[in-house]
Amino acid sequence: ISLCPGEPQQVSVTAEPFVTYQWSNGDFGPTALIEDFNDVILIAVSADGCTEQATLMVNEGIELDLGPDQSICNGESLILDPGSGVAVTWQDGSVQQTFFVNQPGLYSATVEDGCGDGIDEIEILDGLEPTISLQNEFEICLGVSSSLSIISQPNVGYEWSNGDTSSSLTNVEA
């Protein structure tokens, strides 16, 4: 069965010649109230003492996740995949598991199941091409050390030729 969050479901069995029923959730009798997403085991006993066991698999509704908003730079692309394992309806009406993105915008995915619509959105932002300029050109004399720095930009990483990833270098020697 599929169980929607916050909506318990009652299940019943009618099986002859069983006379007693015990459910793994603690219920007794041919009816049980399923309230969580754990599979439920039913043990039924007949009048002559024979037992039969069955497992009721409980599934929760499909949950979509397109991940956090992201940026793409000019010429880059990415593939959105909500990971639901089922066909998804995208904002443009197409129905497929994945969606190819090569420009900024708001993208959404919808899937219908027994619990209603599952919807998620992601905003793909225009990644700004970083501009790098050293403060001024200068010469470093042999035996003298100096510092170099870049004017920091938000959400931009740096890597100097020596592997340092800060926005400035100190003790630079010729």
Describe the fold and architecture.
This protein has strands at residues 2-3, 9-12, 18-23, 31-34, 40-46, 51-56, 59-60, 70-72, 78-80, 88-90, 95-96, 99-101, 105-113, 116-126, 145-149, 168-173. The protein is mostly beta strands and 174 residues long. The strands form 6 sheets. The chain has a 5-stranded mixed beta sheet with strand order 8-14-13-10-11, with no helix packed on it. Strand 13 and strand 14 (116-126) form a beta hairpin. The chain is elongated, with a radius of gyration of 30 Å. The chain starts with a strand and ends with a strand. The model has no long low-confidence stretch (mean pLDDT 81).
Brief digest:
0% of the residues lie in helices and 44% in strands. With 174 residues, it is mostly beta strands.
Q: Give the low-confidence spans.
A: none
**Helix segment tally:** 0
Tell me roughly what share of residues is in helical segments: under 10%
Largest sheet: 5 strands, mixed
Number of strand segments: 16
| Cα-to-Cα separation, first versus last residue | 72 Å
Helix and strand composition category: mainly beta
- Output the strand order for the largest sheet: 8-14-13-10-11
Portion of residues in beta strands equals: 35-45%
Write the H/E string, N to C.
EEEEEEEEEEEEEEEE
**CA radius of gyration:** 30 Å
